[in-house]
Amino acid sequence: MTVRAGVRRGWATALAVAASVTAIVPAVAQAQTTGSIFQGFQPQQQAQPQERAGHPLMQPEAIAQAQANFPNCIAAMQPLAQAKGVSPAVYNQIVAGLQPDMKIMDYMDSQPEFSRTMGSYVDMLVSEKRIAKGREMLAQYKSIFDRVEQAYGVDRYAIAAIWGIESSYGSPGGMGSRPVLQSTATLACIGRRQDYFRDEFVATVQIIAKGDVPADHLKGSWAGAFGPTQFMPTSFQRFAVDFDGDGHRNVVDSIPDVIASTANNLKLDGWKFRETWGYEVVLPQNFDYRYVDRSKRYTMAQWASLGIKRPSGMAFPRPGDTAFLLLPAGAKGPAFLMLPNFSAILKYNPADAYALAIGHLGDRLRGGGPFAQSWPKEERALSRAERIEMQTRLLQMGYDIGNPDGILGTKSRTAVQNFQSRAGMVPDGYPNLEVLARMRQ
Questions:
Q1: CA gap 441, 439 in Å, rounded
Q2: What pLDDT, on a 0 to 100 scale, did the predictor assign at position 33?
Q3: Which letter does DSSP use for residue 323 in this model?
Q4: 253: nearest Cα among 233, 221, 222, 227
Q5: For helices 156-167 and 255-268, what crossing angle results, to 10°?
Q6: In the chain, how long is the greatest CA-to-CA distance?
Q7: What pLDDT shows up at residue 405?
Q8: pLDDT at 27 (0 to 100)
Q9: Angle at 192 between CA 188 and CA 197, to 5 degrees
Q10: Which one-letter DSSP state was computed for residue 425?
């Protein structure tokens, strides 16, 4: 779910990194992950803790000092909770005996090697097993989905897709098993994300104090996301609703609350009812790949005038809708025109790969078929060392890519596109081994 204020759903930062390049990272670099949607997915190479030289609060001495000061830190946050309506007596009862989970410090700064390409990631998540289970859940809870869809104007298939990908429809392994109170307290007092996690910790205390979710059921990832659709505590405070009318917003145990809260989240993030997330499209020969730029948004009619068509040959049903062109695996892979609902999914989790998997799974649950175009099979993901090398070479060529950090974001992709153009390659902005090999020449 997001990166509002810096953290949100499962694997958010990792996905944001991977989604913009060639692979998916099943771990977090910015504590923006929940440990949810990839509980069953382990990379071929296990994550190794990276050196903690980059941030003073991640130095061993700073961590040891913060650990020793943990009780004082917890006590100092009591006024923050009181300002949110939690009395001192209730606060002290909730935090009594609380100890930090120091293993989280390793998770914060571990940097896994990418081992899956975009295509293998999407294919893995949008599996026949997940599709079948999703259809079962849609049938089992049809009456709830009916009421939620009417109340919030959010497509049931999108909600079911998030439920399936975030936690395999609420499986215990998919939701995480760490106490959210302990995780958020640890991160609020130790390490480099303390400012952000103070709010998450206080929100957790509020949830427990109000009794929305029983304290012993409030378990999730190391970064604090919980429930079948993985809410961070502050996101819970903004979006959770009591749809079953029992007086509690229980997004762990109440299926009506889970479905309605997820719908409310998407609605407030801009979901447009009865509209799709995007279209798979086929590009014409000799296409000008300079249009592969999400800042270039045109109407469907304008895209059609450039020779872009749907694989089925069907017309775009809403020619006035605006979209941007996305080539998540470069010119050799499938192409998509992305509509506002894709952006709404991105607010739930800011990763193209995640949003594409959600959209595609939703379509499959609805009865649609697989993508018409194949993903590139011959490529492997760039390693972190190779991504840093690519960024370093781009920087040496005079391109503005920021600091070489292995995260191939917008600046890096734009630089890759410009390099490809200059080198006589297809300028699709896709940073793969072929591009790196040309840079090395």
A1: 6
A2: 33
A3: E
A4: 227
A5: 110
A6: 70
A7: 86
A8: 26
A9: 30
A10: S
Entry pTM:
0.87
| Cβ proximity of 311 and 372 under 8 Å | yes
**Between 353 and 154, residue with greater pLDDT:** 154
3-class SS shares of the chain: helix, strand, coil, % to 5: 50, 5, 45
Structure tokens at 40: 């069953």
Over residues 197-254, the pLDDT tens digits come to: 999 999 999 999 999 999 999 999 999 999 999 999 999 999 999 999 999 999 999 9
Which range has the top average pLDDT, 38-52, 154-168, 395-409?
154-168
Of 351 and 82, more confident: 82
Alpha helices in 249-383 (DSSP H): 255-268, 300-305, 340-348, 352-366
Best CA proximity match to 201, nearest among 190, 186, 212: 186
Give the H or E element holding residue 187: helix 180-189
The amino acid at residue 233 is P
Q: Which of 190, 219, 32 is nearest to 100 (CA)?
A: 190
User: CA nearest 165: which of 367, 336, 11?
Assistant: 11
Structure token pair of residue 127: 């599996």
| Distance set, CA 279 to CA 48, 293, 329 (Å) | 38, 16, 16
- Beta-bridge mates of residue 325: 337
Alpha helices (H) in 46-117, listed in sequence order: 60-68, 70-76, 78-83, 88-95, 103-108
- Residue 137, strand partner residues: none
* Confidence (pLDDT) at 31: 30
Structure token digits, residue 31: 């504590």
In angstroms, rounded to a whole number, what is the distance separating the alpha carbons of residues 211 and 249? Answer: 9
Distance CA 352, CA 347 (A): 11
How deeply is 317 buried, as exposed, middle or buried, from its count of CB atoms within 10 A (0-12, 13-18, 19+)? exposed
**How many distinct helices (H) and strands (E) make up the chain?**
21, 8
Q: Are 175 and 36 in contact (CB under 8 A)?
A: yes
Kindly report, residue by residue over 324-377, the tens digit of the pLDDT: 999 999 999 999 999 999 999 999 988 899 999 999 999 999 999 999 999 998
**Any idea which of 3-17, 238-252, 330-344, 408-422 has the lowest mean pLDDT?**
3-17
Which residues is 337 bridged to in the sheet? 279, 325
Distance CA 5, CA 114 (A): 25
